[in-house]
Every structure is written in C-alpha cells, then in structure tokens.
Amino acid sequence: MSKHPRRESPAKAARTQAEARTQAKAARAQAEAEQAQADLAEAKVKVAKEQDAAIARALQEDDEARRQADLKEVAEKEAEAVPDWPPDPPAGRGSG
C-alpha cells in the first residue's frame, strides 16, 4: 500500500464542486424566500396599522358628526321652547 493520500478522480471532484454550488444556490434561494416572507409580514403589519388608523379616523369623524347633530337638535328644541319676545298682544286688544 502506498503512503500517499489517494487523489479523487477529476470527474468525482467536478461532481463534488457541482453539488457544493447547487447547495450554495439552494441556501441563497432559501435565504431569499425567508427574506421575502419577512418583507411580506412587515407589509401586512403596515397595512393593518394603516387600516386601524383609517377606521379610528372614520369613527372619530362619525362621532363628531353625531355630536354636532345632537347639539343642533338640542338647540332647535330649546329655541322652540323659548317664548317669542316681545309677546304678541292678547287677541281683541288692538292698538287704537
């Protein structure tokens, strides 16, 4: 037996290199897919926050519109309850 280390055949070395390149490509593709998923999750969170803010604004605007309508209604009822001033002269009593 020889004491020299055994050398791989060129074909086996080429296969080994090709497998290493394939594994490296697969690892890069996996990393890109994970990054894309993270970006998508981040975008979904951003959209959800924007939707929440839009809903909150709409609810606030609706509440304000209802408050204004209620205030107007109360003001109209109060105006109806206040007698005219000066009062009309009693019937049958004309000026003259």
Task: Describe the protein in words.
The chain has 1 helix and no strands. It is mostly helical and 96 residues long. Helix content is 75%, strand content 0%. The chain has one helix spanning 10-81.
Chain-averaged pLDDT: 88
Main beta sheet: none
Cα Rg: 42 Å
Tell me what portion of residues adopts beta-strand conformation.
Answer: under 5%
CA distance, first residue to last residue: 148 Å
What would you call the structural class? mainly alpha
Q: What low-confidence regions span 5 or more consecutive residues with pLDDT below 50?
A: none
Overall helicity? over 70%
The number of distinct β-strands equals 0
What is the helix/strand order? H
How many helices? 1
Query: What is the general shape?
Result: rod-shaped
Feature tags:
96 residues, mainly alpha, rod-shaped
